[in-house]
Design a protein that fits this description.
The structure holds 2 protein chains of 2 kinds. Chain A has 13 helices and 8 strands. Chain A is an alpha/beta fold. In chain A, α2 runs parallel beside α3 and α4 packs across α11. Classes of the chains: A alpha/beta, B alpha/beta. At the A-B interface, α5 and α6 of A face α3, α4 and α5 of B.
Chain lengths: 359, 325
């Protein structure tokens, strides 16, 4: 008997706005001009925040910080597709997405300055705090999506991850669960091509990351992660499908980490200047500006004003976070359990007495 | 009043919790159609349907990870990890997230779930099916750890655990799943977490145990009673938080303590209990605290498990030692 094809697969690549600012209008999502400006302003703000965070770290005013330089479009445009009732699960490199969701920027400063209160997401904002262990947020986000499905809530969950996470067990366990139960979740990978010093080629032999969704029988798509329109369109469609019972989607946004892994890293040890320069030419903000100029949506004055506004907001956030009184020693005990245990109370009281001993 | 086994008592508790609160769902490997490999969840699928009794893929990290998401979303998941040896696959989710989400979010989110884990030796099971890994969980801030020792205890503790706002690791001693039968009230009742109980009063030595080992401790106590030594037997019931007051109160009365557990000795829970006795009642002691435990070896396969597990004779030897000090 001849062999037949059991199932055929393919992975789509989506780019709408190329690095020169050329736009395929037939594919462009129907965002009104005003929304395109808001998108742009969010990108500028994310970058201004990132620049300031880097400086604050170098000045010793912030602890370790993970830069988003070059990845602004991937996170801003994806979060832009969320509805307020949707849920969002970040990894640790998505402040751009968190700001779109409404997180006060001083909280991200506060978090990276070592104050747990930066993780207390404001009531009404359905976002998880930053998750550091790579990929572990994937099954948790799938679980929240499961909760929504079981309750009949017409919402979707957006889970962020990086390329390194695709090598972890939780990636596969979470994807598998989402596929089996057809959960309303969108997994969004910022493939910035580097997991600290390990390049994508050492992370996987797969031609794309998007194709990993095939194994779990839901759509995987690869998009230009520095293209706001492609990111927005893919995420918007995937979230809409999730909300209407169409199940999960995996979006691989191909981008590049222009900066170091974190402020504790020195990327010049393991990668060339040339490749960084090559990716700087694909900058997500510059190409959007070119497009906006072509549409009469951008001029020098507006550009200057947007940057000035962004920097002003960032400076205000710095002032706010630095004005916050340091946490109290007892704060480390308060949230271990709903009600403090006897043992913890004893330990806390010993610390508060000032001798640090338990007796 | 009906006489139930531990399995039947847990099943009844699950039914009652699910009837009372539609946020409660059960999920795990083989918990639905098969009713669980120990039949603990038998009949639940028929009664509550497949949206509340869910057979999952063979995927421990996803079972616990998804349960965290479900709990944060507002449900009350009761995931089952089929055997304690497979809990390690879910350890990162338990240690990195379930136990910490309240703290990390400064109370914005909580993780009320009960992770049921059949555990412990004495049932002639293969490797990874007979261990006692409670200390890993007790060592993790933010997790509560509960071990029932009888059918009555199992029902009351489980109903309390399901109502608890924090993640609870509920470890079910397989050895006594069906070997103990006792009267269990049909109506719902709870046994507060964090409170030990005195099972047998005595004034010569405090015997401290939990789970299946409670019965070994009681057997040891009966051997000693024949020789005129009165043991006070304490069932800890909750291992985190520990009822330190109950332990200290008993030791102050008897001046001697023997702690019995199945788990390997080093850094086992007996070490922590002995340390607390030292901190709070050292001068009340008339003998060094003794431990009767498993050994610092891998839990052996069935042919040797009898030698590994504490028995009444070893408990009696330890009591002899503290009595003759």
């Amino acid at each position: 008997m001849p062999k037949t094809v059991a199932k055929d697969f393919r992975i789509e690549w989506l780019q709408i706005l190329d690095e020169h600012g050329n736009c395929d209008q037939s594919l462009r999502p129907p965002l009104p001009d005003e929304q395109i400006r808001v998108l742009y302003e969010n990108l500028v703000f994310a970058r201004a925040f990132d620049e300031k965070a880097f400086k604050l770290q170098r000045e010793g005013r912030l602890g370790t910080y993970a830069s988003i330089f070059g990845q602004e479009a991937a996170q801003v445009a994806s979060a832009f597709a969320l509805q307020p009732d949707d849920w969002m699960f970040p990894s640790f490199r998505e402040p751009g997405a968190s700001f779109v969701r409404g997180l006060p920027p001083q909280m991200i400063f506060q978090y990276w300055a070592g104050d747990e209160r930066g993780s207390k997401i404001p009531e009404g904002q359905n976002d998880f705090p930053i998750t550091i262990p790579v990929g572990t947020q994937i099954p948790i986000g799938a679980g929240a999506a499961w909760g929504a499905k079981l309750r009949g809530d017409k919402i979707a969950v957006l889970v962020y991850l990086g390329d390194g996470a695709t090598s972890k067990g939780d990636f596969h366990e979470g994807f598998n669960l989402a596929g089996v139960f057809s959960l309303p979740v969108v997994f969004f990978c910022q493939n910035n091509q580097w997991a600290i010093s390990v390049p994508l080629k050492r992370q996987t032999a797969a031609h794309t990351l998007a194709q990993k969704a095939i194994a779990y029988d839901f759509p995987g798509i690869q998009v230009d992660g520095n293209d706001v329109f492609a990111v927005y369109k893919a995420t918007h469609e995937a979230l809409a499908r999730a909300r209407s019972g169409g199940g999960p989607t995996f979006i691989e946004a191909v981008t590049f980490r222009i900066g170091d892994h974190t402020t504790a890293d020195d990327a010049s040890r393991y990668r060339s200047k040339e490749i960084v320069e090559e990716w700087k030419r694909k900058d997500p903000i510059h190409r959007l500006i070119r497009y906006m100029i072509s549409q009469g949506l951008w001029n020098e004055d507006y550009g200057q004003q947007t940057l000035a506004n962004a920097r002003e907001r960032v400076e205000a956030a710095v002032k706010e976070f630095e004005a916050v009184a340091p946490p109290k020693a007892k704060d480390m005990f308060r949230f271990t359990f709903a009600e403090m245990t006897e043992e913890l109370r004893e330990q806390m009281e010993a610390l508060l007495r000032g001798n640090g001993r338990v007796h | 009043m009906a006489k139930l086994t531990v399995v039947e008592a847990i099943n009844q508790a699950l039914r009652q919790a699910m009837t009372r609160d539609d946020r409660v769902i059960v999920l795990g490997e083989d918990v639905g159609k098969n009713g669980g490999v120990f039949r603990v969840t038998q009949g639940l699928l028929d009664q509550f349907g497949e949206n509340r009794v869910i057979d999952t893929p063979l995927s421990e990290s996803a079972i616990i990870g998804a349960s965290i998401g479900l709990a944060v979303y507002g449900l009350r998941p009761i995931p089952e990890l089929q055997f304690e040896g497979f809990a390690f696959g879910a350890m990162e989710q338990l240690v990195a997230h379930a136990s910490r989400i309240r703290n990390r979010s400064r109370g914005r989110y909580q993780c009320p779930m009960v992770v049921r884990i059949p555990y412990g030796g004495g049932i002639h099971a293969p490797e990874h099916h007979s261990e006692s890994n409670e200390a890993y969980f007790v060592h993790t801030p933010g997790l509560k750890v509960v071990v029932p020792s009888t059918p009555y205890e199992a029902k009351g503790l489980l109903l309390a655990a399901i109502q608890d706002p924090d993640p609870v690791i509920f470890m079910e001693p397989k050895k006594i799943y069906r070997s103990v039968r006792e009267e269990v009230p049909e109506e719902e009742y709870t046994i507060p977490l964090g409170e030990a109980r005195v099972v047998m009063e005595g004034d010569n030595v405090s015997l401290i145990a939990w789970g299946a080992m409670l019965h070994v401790a009681l057997e040891g106590a009966r051997l000693m009673a024949d020789r005129g030594i009165n043991c006070e037997v304490l069932d800890l019931r909750t291992l985190s938080p520990l009822d330190t007051d109950a332990i200290i109160e008993s030791v102050r009365k008897t001046h001697r303590a023997v702690i019995v557990h199945e788990a390997q000795r080093s850094c086992g829970l007996a070490a922590e209990i002995a340390a607390r006795i030292n901190e709070k009642a050292l001068l009340d002691l008339e003998a060094p605290v003794q431990r009767v435990t498993g050994f610092d070896t891998v839990m052996p396969l069935p042919k040797l498990e009898k030698q590994y597990l504490p028995d009444a004779r070893r408990v009696a030897d330890a009591i002899d030692q503290v009595m003759s000090a």
